[in-house]
Amino acid sequence: xxxxxxxxxxxxxxxxxxxxxxxxxxxxxxxxxxxxxxxxxxxxxxxxxxxxxxxxxxxxxxxxxxxxxxxxxxxxxxxxxxxxxxxxxxxxxxxxxxxxxxxxxxxxxxxxxxxxxxxxxxxxxxxxxxxxxxxxxxxxxxxxxxxxxxxxxxxxxxxxxxxx
Length: 164
Known about the structure:
The longest helix is centred in the C-terminal third of the chain and has 23 residues, at 123-145. By secondary structure, the chain is an alpha+beta fold. A hairpin with a 4-residue loop joins β5 (50-52) and β6. Helix content is 18%, strand content 25%. It has a domain at 5-118: SET domain (Beta-clip-like). The strands form four sheets. The protein has a three-stranded antiparallel sheet, with no helix packed on it. A three-stranded antiparallel sheet has the order 4-6-5, with no helix packed on it. It has a two-stranded antiparallel ribbon with strand order 1-2.
């Protein structure tokens, strides 16, 4: 079976998962899989590829055969996670149409982003940082060319106090 995705070099971070065929909104793209770990039985191994299903179960997706591990984060994703708790599986589904050659993204969540992706390297966040830097630069240039005018001091008045 010919899969609708491939692993390739990402502009955001290392490798990414890319569509090779049109993927329609709502379509299941790929399953995130690996050994199922029981958090209640012990400490989880250190890994960036741990995907929590619920309070007890976590999937260790660090194996290279789990191609879903190559899906990068974006604050404006084109796919989302569908967690099937009873079956203990995670499926990635398209939330909009994805064109061939387009990278597949999901939102990793605030906690993960704060811990591992600070600052965020997705297209939206990089664009915002560049725009903010340009805005600051323009403001600084404006003040260099046109320094703020200082208010003219008022003339001092002398008050005479007469004592009786």
